[in-house]
Amino acid sequence: MKHLKSLREYIDALKEIGEIQEIDQEVDWNLEIGAIIRRSYDLKAPAPLFNNIKDIEKGFRVLGAPGGVSRQQGLYLSRIAISLGLNPHASGQEIIEGLAGAHKKTPIPPKLLEIGPCKENILLGDQVDLFRLPTPLIHDGDGGRFINTFGTVIVQTPDGKWTNWSIARVMILDKNRMVGIVAPAQHLGKIHAMWKEIGKPTPFALALGVEPIIPFVSGMPIPDWVNESDFIGGYLGEPIEVVQCETVNLQVPATAEIVIEGMLSDTETAPEGPMGEYAGYIWLGNVSNKPVYHVTAMTYRNDAILPVVAAGEPIEEDHTAWGLPAAAEALHELREQGLPVTMCYIPLETAVHWLVVSMARDWRDKTNLNTEQLIQKIAKILFKSHLGFGIPKVLLMEDDVDPTNTAEVVWAYATRCHPGTGEVLFPNESMANLPVYLRSDEKRIFMATKAIYNCLTQDEWTVGHTPSRVNFRRAWPTEIQERVLSNWHSYGYQ
Question: What residues are annotated to the active site?
Answer without folding.
Answer: 277
